[in-house]
Amino acid sequence: MDLIVDWLARVIEAVGIGIIVVGAVIATIAFLRNLVRKEVFVETYHAYRVSLGRSILLGLEFMVAADIIGTVAVDQTFRSLGVLGLLVLIRTFLSFSLEVEISGRLPWQGRRTREKRG
Q1: Most buried pick, 6, 7, 106, 109, via CB within 10 A?
Q2: Which of 26, 29, 19, 27 is closest to 47 using CA atoms?
Q3: What is the separation of C-alpha 23 from the centre of its chain, rounded to a whole number of angstroms?
Q4: Is the distance from CB of 69 to CB of 5 less than 8 angstroms?
Q5: Using CA atoms, how far apart are residues 22 and 14, in angstroms rounded to an integer?
Q6: Mind listing the pLDDT tens digit for each residue in 77-114?
Q7: How many CB atoms lie within 10 A of CB 38?
Q8: Rounded to whole angstroms, how far apart are CA atoms 114 and 116?
Q9: Would you give the distance in Å from CA 39 to the centre of its chain?
């Protein structure tokens, strides 16, 4: 059973990495396409950062899930639990930072956006 759960954790982690890579490629292609169409650079750049941030966020979520599965189901030691806690803390901080960067607001500030702030 441990072998199956370890394999599953690795597959989920690979999916997370794949999401980040594919998202980065798609966001970059869209950015370059919009530049060729001579759209406004600032808007194009902002859209690029949002797309890239969303793919990183989704990939990080998969990687956190893989860490949890791999640690809780396979390697149940206090050291591995501490490492898991640290990884989840770091990835949660990254996710929080990316979410603030994408939305332009803190989560508890409601639906105010960058456009409304002007």
Answers
A1: 6
A2: 27
A3: 10
A4: yes
A5: 12
A6: 788 778 888 888 888 888 888 888 777 777 777 765 44
A7: 8
A8: 5
A9: 27
> What are the tokens at 28?
């970059």
Q: Could you report the per-residue pLDDT of 26-77, keeping only the tens digit for each?
A: 999 999 999 898 878 888 988 899 899 899 989 988 988 888 887 777 667 7
Three-state secondary structure along the chain? CHHHHHHHHHHHHHHHHHHHHHHHHHHHHHHHHHHHCCCCHHHHHHHHHHHHHHHHHHHHHHHHHHHHHHHHHHCCCHHHHHHHHHHHHHHHHHHHHHHHHHHCCCHHHCCCCHHHHC
Rounded Cα gap, residues 81 and 104, in angstroms: 34
Where does residue 63 rank: exposed (0-12), middle (13-18), buried (19+ CB within 10 A)?
Answer: buried
Cα 19 from chain centre: 9
Q: Are 25 and 77 within 8 A, CB to CB?
A: no
